[in-house]
Amino acid sequence: MDLKQKIRVIPDYPREGISYKDITPLLRDGRAFRYAVQSLAAECKNKGAELVVCPKARGLMIGAPLAYILGIGLVVLRKPGQLPGEVFTWHYDLEFGGDALEVHRDAIRPGQKVLVADELLATGGTAYNAIRLVEELGAEVVGAVFLIELTGLGGRVKLRNYDTISLVQYNY
Ligand SMILES: O=P(O)(O)OC[C@H]1O[C@H](OP(=O)(O)OP(=O)(O)O)[C@H](O)[C@@H]1O
Ligand SMILES: Nc1ncnc2[nH]cnc12
């Protein structure tokens, strides 16, 4: 199945120069959605992962069904202030200002094998910091998995120490 046909490219959104990859048409096509997640699951089923960890909103749309198919747990990294229990906060710098990801302190255990999953890899800043957070808690990242990769933006180089998988590629 050609998944690119199910991804809508919107020029100059959310601002001029950005070529936005909109996955909502793929998500609402049941066959395409299932094919995409099953394909990702097939790529990472032999990694021995015990947990899928995904950053925030859109990562969850891929991370949750991936964890379900693999039969392993799911942990979501949230923006600060959105989790009710005791949290671990990972602060990081982005090109334009700072950001942070938060996780329940007891959600990721030392030594656990983790797949980091997101819907899109661009500069790799988000995935890299998700990985750093996971490692800070003593777990091991066995792969980074994405529905879409923007190959010209350097994400794969930033994640060069990790096995990086993507299903659909665009230059930017
Ligand atoms: O590789 P990067 O340059 O870090 O870009 C990729 C990230 O950008 C988007 O998230 P966004 O920050 O828009 O937040 P969202 O989770 O609310 O979708 C996307 O879901 C990735 O997480
Ligand atoms: N071009 C893009 N389209 C959709 N989401 C993104 N996140 C970062 N870059 C993106």
Task: Write up this protein.
The protein is of the alpha/beta class and 172 residues long. The chain has helices at residues 24-27, 30-44, 56-70, 125-136, 155-158; strands at residues 8-11, 19-22, 51-55, 73-77, 87-94, 97-104, 113-121, 140-150, 164-170. The chain has a five-stranded parallel β-sheet, with helices on both faces. Strands 1-2 form a two-stranded antiparallel sheet. The chain has a two-stranded antiparallel ribbon with strand order 5-6. A hairpin with a 7-residue loop joins strand 1 (8-11) and strand 2. Helix 2 crosses helix 3 (56-70). The longest helix has 15 residues, at 30-44. Bound molecules: 1-O-pyrophosphono-5-O-phosphono-alpha-D-ribofuranose and adenine. 1-O-pyrophosphono-5-O-phosphono-alpha-D-ribofuranose binds next to helix 3, strand 7 and helix 4. Its EC number is 2.4.2.7. InterPro entries: Ade_phspho_trans, PRTase-like, PRTase_dom, UPRTase/APRTase. GO terms for molecular function: adenine binding; adenine phosphoribosyltransferase activity; AMP binding. Keywords: Cytoplasm, Glycosyltransferase, Purine salvage, Transferase. It catalyses: AMP + diphosphate = 5-phospho-alpha-D-ribose 1-diphosphate + adenine.
